[in-house]
TrEMBL record:
Pfam families: Ammonium_transp. Keywords: Ammonia transport, Membrane, Transmembrane, Transmembrane helix, Transport. This is Ammonium transporter. Residues 24-439 form the Ammonium transporter AmtB-like domain. GO terms for cellular component: plasma membrane. It is a multi-pass membrane protein. Residues 459-482 are annotated as: Disordered. GO terms for molecular function: ammonium channel activity. Belongs to the ammonia transporter channel (TC 1.A.11.2) family. Signal peptide: none annotated. Gene3D superfamilies: Ammonium transporter AmtB like domains (1.10.3430.10). The keyword Transmembrane applies. The chain crosses the membrane at residues 24-46, 53-75, 116-135, 142-162, 182-199, 211-231, 243-264, 273-292, 298-318, 339-362, 396-418.
Amino acid sequence: MESIPANLLPDEASPAWMNKGDNAWQLTAATLVGLQSIPGLVILYGSMVRKKWALNSAFMAIYAFAMVILCWVGWGFRMSFGDKLVVFLGKPGVALDEKFLLGQAFLGYFPTATMVFYQGVFACITVVLIAGALLGRMNFRAWVMFVPLWLTFSYTVAAFSIWSPNGWLAKLGVIDFAGGNVIHVSAGVAGFTASYWVGPRADKDREETQPNNIIMMLAGVGLLWMGWSGFNGGAPFAVSSDASLAILNTHVCTATSLLTWLLLDTCFFGKPSVIGVVQGIITGLVCITPAAGVVQGWAAILMGLISGSVPWYTMMVLQNKVKFLRYIDDPLAVFHTHAIAGILGGILTGFFAVPKLCRLFYLVPDWDKYIGLAYGLQTGQTSAGFHQMGIQLGGILFVVCLNIVTTSIICLFIRLIVPLRMSEEELHIGDESVHGEKAFALFAEKQKFKKSKINAVYDDDDEEEEEPSHVTSRSIGEVQMV
């Protein structure tokens, strides 16, 4: 019998319970998720808004990432995954002690420190996504307060209820592979609710919504897309076949969603929209997230078709027909790309979930309760399939109600202390008034550059008269059908 290589033998730094391969992958997956926020969403936000808001938008994301990390190790991780305090929440506690961090995580064969980091970057990106609905008008001091309050009183509740082994929805059998409910529905509903309380941007900012740099916008969404390999691939907490399937399904669904959105834009507006493609990428990523490792490849394609069409309809058609949706100012259409797509993903997970794949993911004795409706109908377990759909809908309803209530209370509390909106002067001037800085300093100094009519997008902040432009993804969240 061959001896085990020396580097695989357990020692004080690598206990016998730790799988080095799983630990290496989990740290890599966590870093990929972190890169989705920093720099992914920083670039995406900074480039999708008007030039005068580029700095503030990017900075909101960076601040949120840093604040969430500290709150997470301070109390958030244990509130989300620790010992049960009440039915929907864990006991607060620090995650900084060496004895705690170097012990085995509550799931998987790697240290708790790895789990804290992995779950921490998930918490970070959720809060950063909320910022996308509040760009261009939220008082930065209000945002400073909003981030730790929302993480503490909303995110931890959803995470504990759905992901913690002690959570009540987890025990019922809700399927949320990598955060369809906990992250995307939460962020979409919370952003939409906060947008209502903060109010809309200045009228001129709502009328003129051209991104300031479409090429950088594509770079940002590219980081988001590729980073999703860690987002969904890390959910099984192991270097497993299910992780491989989850990654492949993620990219298949996203590619299908992108092409579906592109086709609809071309058919109805006559031009293939680059901004539309960005939205199609995001809706595909969001929709597959709760299902990534528990559905077959053909189901991932069907989910991509739905995620590229239903949010397209709600954004391009319903947005202009429903008065309430027109009133809520959502600059980057977070409600459509995350709330709507996330809800679709949760429902479709309940329909397409494969019992065998659920067994590979959950690795629990009662895995057979995870039966998608389609397979329930096929195998004569119709009641089990409908039961799973009911649990999925119940989980979605819980997350929606939770975020409407907690986000409203948080916003009402904050406005007792500081204004939720920027002053009229700040709304008019933008970054220079809020931060005393400009994202594009060379333009501010009026230096002369040869401007390309192909790659550059200018707004009324430029000294020269702007060229007419053709944008088929129409105002991102505010579209006029013609």
